[in-house]
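To close the section, here is one more complete example, presented without commentary so you can practise reading it yourself. The ligand is heme C.
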Amino acid sequence: MQTTTRIKLALLCLASIVAADGLEAYIRLPKVSIDTSNAEKVSEGAAFFKERCFTCHSMKYLRFDDVSLNAGINPKDAPQWSKDSWKGHPPPDLSLVAITKGVDWLYGYLKGYYFENGSYDNIMWQNTAMPNPYPDLQGKQKLIMTPEQIRAFHPRFYQVVKLDTSGSISAHAFNDKIDALLHYLVYASDPSVEERHSFGPMVLIFMMTLSLFAFLLYRDFYRDFD
Ligand code: HEC
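Output:
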């Protein structure tokens, strides 16, 4: 191989590395806390998921739980995509995404669409294959920092994008929807967590009663030795 070709190849590799160096690593995300015992929020999120996400995303590993079934999310009806659909980036299954990606990242991704040069892109995942699922509700956000500034200042999420044109619902109502959606995604990644927690006190009471009886028995046995 000629030296010039080698240099050209090296430059090409470098260019693709720089291009792939996404901005998400430089953005500080808020710490999102989700309480899945809030059943109302979880079912609200399930309904929203059914309406806006289930058309593309499956929930394969979800058990047949009432919350999902009531919202019309039946793993059997999930869409199926071949590996090369969506230019090789088919919508992945989301049943465990809250665990694999983390809630903070999901918050950023689901609120991260901004409008620039006639199309939407996502600040947490540039050139994502996923089209903005709710431009009508959210309205248009715009970037208020350049990529260079983002790299230099490590800003917080809300310092990077800002609502420019409002959508059909208020920003507050939209945030509520995303919050509910996150509740559902966290719930879906471990639907039995509340049930397990509710066993906790019963198990403790059982252990304490057992210990009491064991102690009484011990006292009874050893009384004879005194
Ligand atoms: C029109 C189809 C479509 C709809 C509707 C859609 N998505 Fe997606 N989604 C995709 C595609 C395609 C990808 C893969 C992105 C990529 O690889 O660049 C994706 C990726 C994702 C990912 C990243 C998962 C991972 O493990 O990398 C999350 C999270 C996600 N979508 C959540 C949602 C949620 C929540 C909704 C509903 C509000 C939704 N999507 C609606 C097509 C869709």
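Once you have examined the tokens, check your reading against these statements. The chain has two domains: 23-191, 199-226. DSSP finds nine helices and four strands in the chain.
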